[in-house]
Amino acid sequence: MNMHLILIMNTNKRRELADSKYNERRSECEQALDLLKQELEIQALGNISSEQFEQFKHLITNEILQKRAKHAVYENERTIQALEALKKGDIREFGRLMDASHRSLRDDYEVTGIELDTLVEAAWTQSGVVGARMTGAGFGGCAIAIVEKDKVEAVIKSIRKIYEDKTGYKASFYEVRIGDGAKELLDGMIA
């Protein structure tokens, strides 16, 4: 079994518009929710399944609002599926869900930008990368990838070159190793 690590990839681009765009996306989701409430008794977009969304999305006649709502509904399902994949130890499925999440953040929620997309899409082409997506508020900032430990150096080298060639920025990379988690200490000894 291959061991994996989390690779944080920093665009080194100052975040722009993140606060105002976050408020805009939230407002768009609230508007879409209000339209769905015409026929559905729900309090949040996460209260419906993707199947229900597809059945009732016609209530959202504005294409932008429909895309925002689609992202919220499907992302909620992806999160639940990702938890199940992790519980089963299915890292490949988890990676597939990460990739789908980024595509939705790019195409439906529209919060990524050229820098994040370049990092993530470069990661997708690398042998040893299980999945990748942006993280945080978007419009700059960081992305993460799940990478096979024995391929991380080659992955970083390749992504670094692709990113710098396309954007002119130099990305930073941080390897995160996962430990056992918190433990109770008793008089300096692990319990």
Overview of the molecule:
With 191 residues, the protein is of the alpha+beta class. The chain has a single domain (4-177), classed as Alpha-Beta Plaits. It has helices at 18-36, 50-56, 63-88, 91-107, 114-124, 152-167, and strands at 4-10, 129-135, 142-148, 172-176, 185-186, 189-190. The strands form two sheets. The chain has a four-stranded antiparallel beta sheet with strand order 2-3-1-4. A two-stranded antiparallel sheet has the order 5-6. Strand 2 (129-135) and strand 3 (142-148) form a beta hairpin. The longest helix is centred in the middle third of the chain and has 26 residues, at 63-88. The radius of gyration is 19 Å and the shape is globular. The protein starts with a strand and ends with a strand. 31% of the residues are buried.
The count of strands amounts to 6
Number of helices: 6
In angstroms, what is the radius of gyration? Answer: 19 Å
From the coordinates shown, what is the CATH architecture?
2-Layer Sandwich
Q: In which order are the strands of the major sheet placed?
A: 2-3-1-4
- How would you name the CATH homologous superfamily? GHMP kinase, C-terminal domain
Low-confidence stretches: none
The share of residues in helices is 40-55%
Shape: globular
User: Could you give the distance between the termini?
Assistant: 30 Å
Beta-strand content bin: 15-25%
Instruction: Tell me about the largest β-sheet.
Output: 4 strands, antiparallel
Order of helices and strands: EHHHHHEEHEEE
Structural classification: alpha+beta
